[in-house]
Amino acid sequence: MSGTTKQVKKHDARPLTERQLVLMIIMVTLPMTLVHSPSDIVQFGQQHAYLCIILVYLVLLICIWLLSRTQRRFGSQNLFQAMIGRRPFVGRVIVGMYVLYYFYILARDARLLTEYVDTTLLPLTPVMIILLCIFVMSGFIIRGGMKSVVSMTEIFMPILILTIFMIPLFVSGALDFHYLKPFFPVDLIGVGNGTWYFFSYAGEIIILPFIFGKETFKLKSAVKGLSFAFFLLVIDIIMMILIIGLPIIPRISYPSHELVRQVQISDFLDRFDMFLAAAILPIHMTKVAFNTYVVCYGMGCLDKNISGRMMQGPIILLGYVCAFWFFKDSIQLFKFDREWSAIVLLFTLVMPVLIYLIFRPSKKNKTDGATQNKQSAQNEESQNGPSSQEGESTETEKSTQKAQSAQAEKSTQKAQSAQNESSQHRSPTKKSGTSQNGNAGSAEGS
């Protein structure tokens, strides 16, 4: 057991704060989901498309809870380390499956971002050049490890959040609430189909407990981040329905970009979408860099001789090739969403349940954990010990001084009393002696 745990590489990143974890969850969930999935959701869910998001949200809460409970069994280790340390063969098989799963997500997100940039920003630039630039920028981001990804998220993620909150203010005059009617009759089959398609983009958050330890991935913070991310998705979907309209959204490849194009601050700034696209594009590149980090870190956990940092270049080149190899164009990418949702459910819902049931710490690990807790408690006591010992020493010194002073007073009192008694006994004898001498002298004189 100890030999297998030594082979697992430790995560060198410092624990993230609650704010950083919330922003990371939004970064993993929101950017790529807003690119194309709204068209599929509205096509099936119609005016009740937001119900598809709520159903997926409830399922992901269960998955995160299962993974968090499993992670608590293994102390500060993440799930990649815990699975390989507990069951080396089965753990490596599961880690390899997740590496392949996320490598496909890497190729898909890179190709989706390339098609988005080619359609909205650079229609005359070759697709190969755009994809190469995306991977090069992602490679520079990932050179600093998870710290660089978190820093990029802290800088550019608030811009995307502010954009989503500011859009209703700019387009409030163009809202048409007629598209939300009828409100109460719900097409359950349509909502179910929309939920199925939405799973193909929304289940990527479950990778976080596999690469973060218990000190970073806390269930309360994860629920906050997931809730806020899906709240932003609901706002964006409702704005699309009220502004663009139900008949038009399913026929648009990138409805989020069309929503931003409706923002016109003045007659001189009618292409405000260019500014917003340029401001939001770095967060999409950060998402591609995060996917690359997950693949490299997973490969580093499989074998101690594999360096995740050295694998960044080969993974980026392989992802660049597979982005063209997997998909001929964006149409094939969008059509594969129906089949891809089944694979996502396997890794998002089925695998967490199996991991929760299979991977449990051994009794030896439990005893080791108990001894570690005792040692930590003893260390804390030893750290707090000098101050308490100093206090005790000062108290003992004071008590000894008081005892010594009391003994000295008693001894002096006894000595004085003894001297007084001796002086009292000596004085009568002296008086009698003098009287006898006087009598003798008088007798002699007579």
What would your notes on this structure say?
The chain has 446 residues and is mostly helical. It has a single domain, classed as Up-down Bundle (Amino acid/polyamine transporter I). The chain has 17 helices and no strands. It starts with a helix and ends with a helix. The N terminus and C terminus are likely disordered.
Summary keywords:
446 residues, mainly alpha, Amino acid/polyamine transporter I, 17 helices, 78% helix, disordered N terminus, disordered C terminus
Helix-strand sequence: HHHHHHHHHHHHHHHHH
Number of strands: 0
Write down the overall geometry.
elongated
Q: Which range best describes the helical content: under 10%, 10-25%, 25-40%, 40-55%, 55-70% or over 70%?
A: over 70%
CATH topology tier name = Amino acid/polyamine transporter I
What can be said about the biggest beta sheet?
none
- CATH architecture title: Up-down Bundle
- What percentage of amino acids are in beta strands? under 5%
Distance between the termini: 122 Å
CATH superfamily: Amino acid/polyamine transporter I
**What's the alpha carbon Rg, rounded to whole Å?**
39 Å
Number of individual domains: 1
Low-confidence stretches: 1-13, 379-395, 426-446
Would you tell me the structural class of the helices and strands?
mainly alpha
**The top level CATH class name:** Mainly Alpha
- If helices are DSSP runs of H or I spanning 4 or more residues, what is the number of helices? 17
* Average pLDDT over all residues: 80
